[in-house]
Design goal:
The protein has helices at about 1-25, 75-90, and strands spanning about 30-35, 50-60, 65-75. The chain is an alpha+beta fold. It has a 3-stranded antiparallel beta sheet, with no helix packed on it. A hairpin with an 8-residue loop joins strand 2 (about 50-60) and strand 3. The longest helix has 25 residues, at about 1-25.
Length: about 90
Amino acid sequence: MQHRGFLLLTLLALLALTSAAAKKKDKFGADCKYKFENWGACDGGTGTKVRQGTLKKARYNAQCQETIRVTNPCTPKTKAKAKAKKGKGKD
């Protein structure tokens, strides 16, 4: 009777370990890796900046685009000016 309990416990532990390993493998990186250019200038009309990436590496059987474009909101200029003033006052 004790052997059955031990075997059952061992089997459950083995299943838990394989399940955790499978979850880790699924979360390991993206299928498509890109090399990105620097951010472009802020477009005042849309309030966004753009950069382009070219395909660097693709996982086996991944459907990747050769180039992609990514947009990001522009940062307000007031933050950059405030940081510059703080840096000058430390001399």
